[in-house]
Amino acid sequence: MKRNTSWIILLLIVFAAICCQSPKSNVDSSIDRKWWKEAVLYQIYPQSFKDTDGDGFGDFKGVVEKLDYLQSLGINMVWMNPFFDSPLVDNGYDVSDYREVLPRYGTMADFQEMLDGMHERGIKFVLDMVVNHTSVEHEWFKQSRSSRDNPYRDYYHWWPAEKGEPPYRYSLFDPEGAWEYDSLTNAYYLHYFADAQPDLNWENPKVRQEVYDIMKFWAEKGVDGFRMDAFQYVSKDTAFPVWPEGYEKDFNKYCGMGPDLHPYLKEMYEQVLSKYDIFAVSEGAGTTFQDAHDLVDADRNELQMAYHFESVGMSRTTDGYKLAEFKKVFTRWDSAFADKGWLAIYLSNHDNSRLVNRFGNPSPEFRTVSTQMLNTFMLSMRGTPYTYYGDELGMTNIDMPTIEEYVDVSALGDYGKAKAQGKDLDEFMVQLNYNSRENGRTPMQWDDTPNAGFTTGVPWKRVNENYKEINVAAENQDPNSILNHFRKMTRLRKDNLVLVYGDYHILQAEHPDIYAYTRTLGDQKMLVLLNFKDHDSSIELPEAKGIREILIDNYDGLTNENGKVVLKPYQAVVCKIE
Ligand code: GLC
């Protein structure tokens, strides 16, 4: 009798253990689990996040003040745009010293306090490594330009003027092209971005060693990842041949993605990445899937994550985008990476205008639901979701109809190009007002006090006038806000690894209004239904017959008659299915 009881107790324990196992232990052991795959990333534009000393410019202490807010979002990784010493020609993407922080952000001790504060809350930190180019004010460049036989001359690309004018090179920011004449040594230097951002010569092993040392310097401080800025351009054809007509169509092929890129990455992996529990993501993923794969193929030991431009490449003009194309882009990229490699999922960042203006509907009626729908999308796809500060609130574009107000080097460069090409400048301004990256750089809207609680001084950039309605304090109070919906989604993703690793399968790809897909991992299956339109729309799906539980819904329920589902405008639903 006693024996029987012990058996029953033992069986009960085993049964309880099976029932109570965490969602994680249910996962197929063949899955290559990594913390950076399971993370939800939040991007902070430090200049605009929170100012504590009244100079109208965000700072590290401001981020420290908001650490609990970050934790409350359920994010567990932060990427911060560059905060190194810089003359700020391109808002920090022009670095004059990689081992110093810009004093306006605070001191290195303040940085460390911020980093430690994140780590205490389980939040990892990604550093923006801008090493395709430096600032003209970097000591290397000052040395390099000083004489032709200076030891730093080969740190950059120089074209001696006695060879004649160098073959044309396109500059992303400078209407006059990528070569700048420097009378000091009668030579031209190369700059793919602004003329204050000379390109480093990666063919010089000393340059590469400098970069790896800088990366180690920050890794030793405890950063957990690197975002490699404009990295596909570091390897280029330095014989500088004349480009053929129509090179624009294959821009990356001519400008970058040179044959040395992979050897450089392998070297970086050996020297830096392999030594720490750290990952690196490249900005830009080449021109083909093969390029992208090769960059992040775990067996090659180069980078770990890629982010491509095709998603944000849609909807660049006021004509908007087509849902059919949107689905195709995400489905194509997902299937290309289904077995190997890992992607970032994003729809906005500091180089783009606001999420809701480009992909949702900023009108008062639909701003909330459409932003919730887009956040549901990003947090239910395979890949690491990247959320840009303010998109968890549905912050919107600002209205800047005339060029005088613009300070961004890219906007000013594009304006110069449009003018030189004799384009209609009124039409150009309409487009710029819609797609300029300044739209995405306005101060964070914390509350309804002056300047949205961002600063007590004069903000470096005008605060969006809608801050009285759109702000953290207001959205905190409202259980149905975009902010609280975002929190629900991060929790759901964290609790359900199927949303991280599960296979993605699109349903009725050709449906004109609804984006529907399943995510499957082992015996777990989720159905995601997203209405991208401002009207009701229905879809008939056998999968919807098997809905067991609705886990997320930005409305009050779903009309579902035996698999025929009607979604309200921008309704977003995630459900467990059989
Ligand atoms: C990247 C950055 C962008 C910057 C450029 C030059 O594209 O995202 O903001 O202007 O590189 O560094």
Q: How would you describe what is shown here?
A:
The protein is of the alpha/beta class. The protein has four domains: about 35-135 and about 205-405 and about 440-490, Glycosidases (TIM Barrel); about 140-190, Oligo-1,6-glucosidase, domain 2; about 405-435; about 505-575, Golgi alpha-mannosidase II (Immunoglobulin-like), CATH 2.60.40. The strands form five sheets. It has an eight-stranded parallel sheet with strand order 11-10-9-5-2-1-13-12. A five-stranded antiparallel sheet has the order 14-15-16-21-18. The longest helix is centred in the first third of the chain and has 18 residues, at about 1-20. It is globular, with a radius of gyration of 25 Å. It starts with a helix and ends with a strand. Alpha-D-glucopyranose (GLC) binds near residues 90 and 283.
CATH topology of the largest domain: TIM Barrel
Distance, first to last CA: 41 Å
CATH class label of the largest domain: Alpha Beta
Number of strands: 21
Q: Which CATH architecture of the largest domain?
A: Alpha-Beta Barrel
Helical segment count: 20
Structural class: alpha/beta
Bound compounds, each kind once, are:
alpha-D-glucopyranose
Largest sheet: 8 strands, parallel
Indicate the low-confidence ranges by residue numbers. 16-25
Rg: 25 Å
Number of domains: 4
Q: What percent of residues are in strands?
A: 15-25%
Integer average pLDDT: 94
Gross morphology is globular
CATH homologous superfamily grouping of the largest domain: Glycosidases
Strand order of the largest sheet: 11-10-9-5-2-1-13-12
